[in-house]
Amino acid sequence: MLLNLLVGIPVMLLCLLMQAYFVSLCLRQYVRFRKSRQGHDTQFLNAALLSLVMLLMLLGNFAQMAIWALLFWFLGEFGQFATALYHSGVNFATLGYGDIVMSETWRLLGPLEAANGILMFGVSTAVMTGAVMDIIKYQMAQGREH
């Protein structure tokens, strides 16, 4: 168990730093775009902006799944990276299919990744919600209903 924690916690910290980077990147680009389009926004541009935020956050989550998959592959749990990535995605998204399991030695890494994934999806949801709320607030300030 201790070995799992010693290996898993640094990966969780790496994922946390990566998520913080993606959040920072998203918010910086979002603010920059909103300022440049001040007064000239359209429903299409708002939808495109929200889609971009969602895409960047999903890419960040996918990159984290790939990091966990690399760890599983490096530890020799899976012969192919694609299998490790599938297993990582199931863990990260907290699906828990159970069709592929790791050896007893490293099995505790699955719940660690699931805890990491649920936290990171929560952060992604918060960023997307913040962007939606900002657009609603801006639209209301402009006196528009659409």
Automatic annotation (TrEMBL):
Q: Which GO terms describe its biological process?
A: monoatomic ion transmembrane transport
What positions does the domain Potassium channel occupy? 67-132
For this protein, the record's Pfam families field holds: Ion_trans_2 (PF07885)
- The transmembrane segments are 6-27, 48-75, 114-136
Question: Highest taxon of the source?
Answer: Bacteria
InterPro entries reported for this sequence = K_chnl_dom (IPR013099)
Keywords of the record, alphabetical order, are:
Ion channel, Ion transport, Membrane, Transmembrane, Transmembrane helix, Transport
UniProt entry tagged with the keyword Translocase: no
Whether Protein transport counts among this entry's keywords is no
Tell me what this protein is called. Two pore domain potassium channel family protein
